[in-house]
Amino acid sequence: MNASLDLLAMMLPEGADSALIASRTNRRYLTAFDSDLGYLLLTKTAAYLLVDFRYAEAAAAQAKGVEVVCFKKLSDELKRLIAENDLKCIALEGSGFNLNEAARIEKMLVPAETIKTEELDNAIAKLRIVKTSSETEKIMKAQRITEKALEQTLPLVKEGVMERDIALELEYRIRKLGAEDVSFDLIVISGKKTSMPHGVPGENRICPGDFITFDIGALYQGYHSDMTRTYAFGEISEKQKRVYKTVLEAQAIGLETVKAGIPAKDVDKAARDHIYQAGFEGCFGHSTGHGVGLDIHEAPTVSSAGETILQSGMVITVEPGIYLPGEFGVRIEDTVVVTADGYINLCTLPKELIVL
């Protein structure tokens, strides 16, 4: 087995002698192989990746630390492995099975019993929460692709251009530059729509006096990037400038708080307090950040409820915002790597107010 599988085997829930994992990102993390269907059966001494004929050859070449099992009938192979390994109790990955799937799988696992708790998911999250240098490099590569694509797209932002067209152009350039996909449905919104944190690009046309929010990211070798920049198009009001300045200050204060050894909630409090003290209480409704990796949103949560103690190697976002319904909104977001005495910012694009 590989190092991650060895560690997980020692973290199995009490009473379990094995685990069955089905979620795509957890399978990829633990085996280095990606497929939309597959099952990882982990015992305390062995690991089996069960895939069907479509993925068998690729899995045999790419999967690390596992024995690849090609199944025609999943239940037959599971029963064989249970018998060969004398398994008595299998922990099921909660995020890998819905209720119907869990019931179906449990029948296949007889005579072994099953454990259905959050313990297995929490153990995997604990492994994934601190990134290796290889993981960080992939996130950084995704970030560089994102930034270059945005730099190539900004000159196309003109009066009368539709949000949707800008978003489509940006997605094309992200893929053209080597990403396998975008991290999520890109957010490119303007004008009053910027007051919606997750607004959807539509037929709105860019107008003078607009803020334009770009919340964007790329997917590179399975790893995500995440960044938000807000630009002004033409002359904007003093109120818009004040809001932008407040968010920029809040983000800087949040970043200054980041370092190993502090609770994630301290980062949220630092940024949020500044926004509220500036007179915008109630205008910042989402968390200040989240972990980034194989999933675009993963542990740790950087919110008022974020009890996780930051550790060196964690990758998180810091993204405060102010949203004034019916008027406009501003968000500024960087993705950073936590270090012993601070952070490494993976985002290099400027954050001072830029007028397009």
Give the tags.
elongated, 19 strands, 2 domains, 356 residues, Creatine Amidinohydrolase, Chain A, domain 1, six-stranded mixed β-sheet, three-stranded antiparallel β-sheet, alpha+beta, Creatine Amidinohydrolase
3D architecture notes:
Helix content is 36%, strand content 22%. Strand 16 and strand 17 form a beta hairpin. A 6-stranded mixed beta sheet has the order 4-3-2-1-5-6, sandwiched between helices. A 3-stranded antiparallel beta sheet has the order 7-10-11. The protein has a 3-stranded antiparallel beta sheet with strand order 8-9-12. It contains 10 helices and 19 strands. The chain folds into 2 domains: 126 residues, Creatinase/prolidase N-terminal domain (Creatine Amidinohydrolase, Chain A, domain 1, 3-Layer(aba) Sandwich), CATH 3.40.350; 213 residues, Alpha-Beta Complex (Creatine Amidinohydrolase). The mean pLDDT is 97. The longest helix has 21 residues. It starts with a helix and ends in an 11-residue tail after the last strand. Helix 9 runs antiparallel to helix 10. By secondary structure, the protein is α+β, with helices and mostly antiparallel strands. It is elongated.
In brief, what are we looking at here?
By secondary structure, the protein is of the alpha+beta class. The protein has helices at residues 3-9, 24-31, 53-62, 74-84, 99-109, 119-128, 133-153, 163-176, 238-257, 264-280; strands spanning 18-21, 39-43, 47-51, 67-70, 89-92, 113-115, 181-182, 187-190, 210-216, 218-220, 223-224, 227-233, 289-291, 298-302, 315-318, 321-324, 328-331, 334-339, 342-345. Helix 7 (133-153) crosses helix 8 and helix 9 packs antiparallel against helix 10 (264-280).
